[in-house]
Write a structure and sequence with these properties.
Blueprint lengths: L2 E4 L3 E5 L2 E6 L10 H12 L8 E5 L5 H9 L4 E6 L2 H10 L8 E5 L2 H7 L5 E6 L14 H10 E9 L8 H11 L12
Parallel strand pairs: 4-5, 4-7, 5-6, 7-8
Antiparallel strand pairs: 1-2, 2-3
Length: 190
């Protein structure tokens, strides 16, 4: 079960592992490096401040959706999170600001994405984990094609892909995504 520690900000842990960090008074503060990297992509896909339509697969404490709502007001965001207990905890302890433009959906990421309209998102952020791994049904060419279908022409697919040397999972995911997307960029520690 997730835990939330109160301090100046909120640290959400799942099974003892840090999962999300939120400062309700400073939503642009991103504590975790992976969140900073994903936010950098969100910062560069359009002119500063321009609103975006974004789908977030995996929600955590809604760190990136809060960041985007603060940096790109007027953005429309769909957050898909399968953990209903987590959603309840976040809604109770870390409520969204009224008019944030963030809609939260308690559903499996792949199933929700399969019903999403074509060409409906500027950016898709995939940050879904079952334990320490990306669920297998979100690692296939068929999944990547579904993600591409939901993105508008010129849209961007971004993903948090945790792996360690020798990077077998990362290599397989890059190969999978290359089957669908013309251009790939990798941001990682040296």
């Amino acid at each position: 079960m997730p835990d939330v520690d109160r301090a100046r900000a909120w640290l959400l842990t799942v099974d003892g592992a840090p999962q999300s960090y939120v400062d309700l008074d400073a939503p642009t503060h991103l504590e975790f490096e992976y969140a900073q990297r994903l936010a950098h992509v969100l910062d560069t896909v359009a002119a500063p401040g321009d609103p975006l339509d974004v789908v977030h697969l995996g929600g955590g404490a809604l760190t990136l959706p809060r960041y985007l709502a603060a940096t790109r007001p007027g953005s429309r965001q769909d957050v898909v999170e399968a953990d209903h207990g987590l959603l309840e905890l976040v809604a109770e302890q870390l409520p969204l600001a009224p008019g944030s433009g963030i809609a939260v959906h308690g559903a499996d990421a792949r199933q929700w994405l399969e019903t999403a309209p074509d060409d409906s998102a500027d950016v898709l952020v995939a940050d879904v984990f079952g334990g320490s791994r990306v669920p297998a049904h979100l690692t296939t060419v068929a999944y990547a094609r579904t993600a591409e279908r939901v993105l508008r022409p010129g849209g961007h697919y971004t993903a948090n892909l945790a792996d360690g040397a020798p990077f077998a999972f990362l290599r397989s995911q890059l190969a999978t995504l290359a089957e669908v997307f013309e251009e790939l960029a990798l941001i990682a520690e040296p």
